[in-house]
Amino acid sequence: MFGNFFKSPKDERGRVPPGQTLTERFPVLTYGPTPSLKPQEVRLKVYGRVETPLELSWDDLMGLPQSDLTADFHCVTRWSKLDVKWRGVRVLDLMEQVRLEPSAKAVLLHCYGGYTTNLLLEDFLRPENLLAHTLYGEPLPRDHGGPLRLIVPHLYAWKSAKWLRGLEFLDREELGFWEVNGYHRRGDPWKEERFSEG
Ligand SMILES: Nc1nc2c(c(=O)[nH]1)N[C@H]1C(S)=C(S)[C@@H](COP(=O)(O)O)O[C@H]1N2
Ligand SMILES: [Mo]
């Protein structure tokens, strides 16, 4: 509270995690191919440790409440971009449609193109997390993950899965693509959780 009292909203102090540099640009970071999907082709599957698996169409997603999010974006390759403006469906609004089994502890995010990344439920079920389809008021560009990507602002951006296709709920943590290849299982930029210790 007091920290913010003396700052203008755009003040950068205290917003750039250790080891990061600000950029005004919005670089594209993709490993592997960039899928090409029309919104009407997108299906979002919700499965695993859920009482009833779901498959949402684009129209289903657009029928859910729509929310705006302004959030800072931190890539583990050491660039950060402040105040990125997204619009989409909050994870918590989507999860109103989903009944998790009590054993559910984690989620593995699956993407068109084969990329995966993992989150614990406590990191996934946060009020700011968004399934984004709009960036600065325009349809989310394909190279930034359009038609649909996840945004998880409090962790490094490799957790913000582009071209999202599935949420697989699990009773234990299962590592995703970068996490298997040496990145940290959680990825908190304020703790510089860049790489796994192992
Ligand atoms: N499907 C998919 N999602 C992904 C990636 C990817 O290669 N494939 N890269 C991640 C990484 S490392 C970062 S930094 C952000 C980059 O998002 P941007 O390309 O919109 O800047 O997307 C993340 N989500
Ligand atoms: Mo990244």
From TrEMBL:
It comes from the Bacteria. Residues 1-21 are annotated as: Disordered. Gene3D superfamilies: Oxidoreductase, molybdopterin-binding domain. It comes from Allomeiothermus silvanus (strain ATCC 700542 / DSM 9946 / NBRC 106475 / NCIMB 13440 / VI-R2) (Thermus silvanus). InterPro entries: OxRdtase_Mopterin-bd_dom (IPR000572), OxRdtase_Mopterin-bd_sf (IPR036374). Signal peptide: none annotated. Residues 32-178 form the Oxidoreductase molybdopterin-binding domain. This is Oxidoreductase molybdopterin binding protein.
